[in-house]
Amino acid sequence: MRSRAGWLVLAAGLIVGGCGNAPGDLEACVRTAWGGLRPVAEDRARRFLGQVDEERARCRGGARAAEARRGPWVDWPAYWATGDAGSRTPGASWGGRFFGPDQRGLDGALIDLEYQRVELIRFNLFDNSGTYPQYARGRDGVPGRAIRVWPEMRLPPTHPAFVAVGGAGVQRCPGELIRSRTLTGICNDIRNPLMGATGMPFARNVEFEATFPELGATALARNRHGGRLGLLKPDPQVISRRLLTRASAPDDTCHEGRGLPGSSVAARCAYKAASTLNVLAAFWIQFMTHDWFSHLDEGRNAPTTMAMGCLSERVDGVERPLTAAAAARLGCRAGDRIDVATVAESADPPRFDDGGRARLARAFRSTRNTVTAWWDASQLYGHDATSRRRVPRDPADPAKLRLLVPDQRAAAGDTLGYLPVLGPGDPINPQWAGQEAAAFPDNWSVGLSFFHTVFAREHNLFVDAFRRLAAATPDGDSGLRHPDRPGQVVRYRDVDPDTLFEVARLVVAAEIAKAHTIEWTPQLLYDEPLSLALRANWFGLLDADADLVRLALSTVVRTLGRSRDGDPATTWYSVFASGPGIFGLGNRIGAAGARDAWSLANPDHVNGGTNHFGSPFNFPEEFVTVYRLHPMLPDLLELRALERDPNMVRLKLPVADVARGRATDAMRTHGLASWAVSLGRQRAGRLTLQNHPRFLQALDVPRIGGPTGKIDVAALDLIRDRERGVPRFNEFRRQYGLRQLTSFDDLVDLRLPAGSAERLEQERLVGVLRDVYGRHRCDASKPITEAQLNDDGTPVNDCLGRPDGSQVDNVEDLDTVVGWLAEFRRPHGFAISETQLQVFILNASRRLFSDRFFTSSFRPEFYSHLGVRWVTDNGPDGKVMERGGPARPGGEVSPLKRVLLRTIPALAPELGPVVNVFDPWARDRGAYYALDWKPRPGAEADEAFR
Ligand code: HEM
Question: Which among 2, 310, 339, 576 counts the fewest CB atoms within 10 Å?
């Protein structure tokens, strides 16, 4: 069914408000408006794919957008106002605010993104812990997508809290278990105690049948890959050396990332640098991933080791042994070994009948997330009893984390404190000796040291502020309540140190989630549609200055509501949430202006803001894949001194030399403030081919004890994905509702002028891809997927649209990480690719939707009055606005900038002009999403601009 009434208004508006358009665009808009919105797909093979019809593209982006509809890529990046100033249309007239081209472009982009999210929620949730048959078939008359409680999420009888949650009866977490975030993540959802807890299986976002293509367990997988794949086929080290190694510049003095003696500034390690993202952004995301997921247990995989390639190469489509000379020429090492990935379940998966079709109940193998899946700052506070032992409290005030002032920092007047070093009594791996104490200590770097120290200081500053309030008004109402005594006020004087510690943890975790959502991610995806979409996730679109966006989305809701297969529990919900935002959903009961009826005594109020869309929350294996962001790291860190001319680079320190215990030394020697300005001004590496740090290709890992003592982490990224059964790039895209590639040539950005240097470079890299992955003679009788159909409704086959028997690229074999790195055509300002974004659209929303502490339990009863204010206002002293400048929307000082100003006060002058902490600090941000690499006023002398 199509909706027409509302579109009459829109059509009229377009006619009066569309000045500045070509007449054809306006007609396209009227016809599009009359036709209504497309229905949400009811069948996974007929999804939206991010591609609209020509008229819709013309309405939203004129002729340029209509022409850009070529190849596999999504359409919205060609709409008006989705790029820099040049993508906007001048001369809006009356009505332009609502119906003008720029607004149509932005609304169109947001509508496309919302369609993607709705379809992702509908087609891409595959829980690996046994609930999937219920999701597919429903249970007790309830459709699968509306199920909210699962037996698989019950605590087992062996769990220490089994009795407390209800034992063998109905389980519901009570009292102390729901007051704060628990150490192992149980009881976030009070009716599904085990969901998201330490050790639960990673989920999947792809059909279980599509996992582990190397096994050739299905006819489709065999057809798709023709027996060409294996754990070490194509050879991961050959791929690493040929497609991922950073090219050397003529003046390169990199020495595999070791630089020059004495950390001389004369060292050069060429890398492709991002212009709108700094090195803080790279370490931030390492800091985040340590909170969200890990496959390793205390830094270890399985006890056995295996080879990691440098053994074969593909010549004329045939795998041949690599000669010693070829290995030497490539620079790979056949002697590298790595410990085998830990697997949770590898037995043949159970099957169930789904409408006459046998389906898998889980992936062919499963792995466990060894940390909590919640956004709970577990990298700081711990995820089990062992990691908690590495989190020392301040003996003078156990509500605080232990910080101390090393002598060299005291001498510099830097007294807010540094993390203590792990001691002999702490549970550690030998390689962690000498590092700062951290719950998650693996792959420790100076950047992790930076963020752990900053947030430990923030934790303590919150405790200080709370204690000041308690001292001033000891009988005042802290806002906290105990779930066992919901009606009883908890006065400041009643709050014991353990309770305050946990309240501070809630606040710190929420601040981190907020900074990530509205500061890190919008800088990673630096354009207006994503900025609006991310703010909508947190604040809701109602906060944003985008009236028509609201209007447009309410229209989407109406249209979706008429979809024949509309499911209010999932489809509508996601769209509705765009209005108020996900954060704080359900934390108020009753109409605006009326008395808030939310009650701690009512479990449906405590838990009621969450929605798991019928599938218990955990990250999918595929999420880990798109966070393999190692190219963001440079090899050498450019050290500056805050107090002595930050424009000058004083040392070039190899990342490898400021890792593990040496990170701790480097932090104490140079201090948090100088590291801040150094990492804040230096540009991150671009996420593209031939840009992996060289030090990571020769990382010392003595614990493995192989002949070389080294590993190539770039190769390991591919091996791990193969061990964990991530589908290869093309099937990955089809499964996620994106269009497939038909040859490696599709990767070239055809918007670039033919013969331009950039396009020639892309064509060169496509040649290397073809060489490494090879080609084969195709067989049109072999279907290769069920995730999508050809446009004419026929099955996709091995020939990908080419004549039977022709030579086709082995594009189906492309490792997913290599594929997304090779996506040269990206939306404006995107550091990542559209394939990665697709994974984020689903999972970034879901981890907010599923978390009680970000939705219905974001309340003073849990966070305290001070805590709610602190998270809402980015600190204790009310909202703080930027003084003029290009900050938008609303001009509020960004959350992480506020944290840095509190925890490192010496940064105030440097941070003054900074709008987003992850934009290189000396860059002039310019107008409307400019990507130029130009110094801001006052930083003209910065060496980075020479
Ligand atoms: C000093 C810096 C770094 C070092 C030494 C390092 C090293 C490693 C190593 C050795 C592994 C493989 C673990 C295994 O499977 O056996 C790994 C995995 C990984 N790294 Fe890094 N890394 C660094 C920085 C980063 C950064 C900046 C990111 C950005 C997000 C990142 C993201 C990941 C991810 C997502 C994995 C997979 C984790 C998992 O399987 O659970 N790393 N890293």
Answer: 2
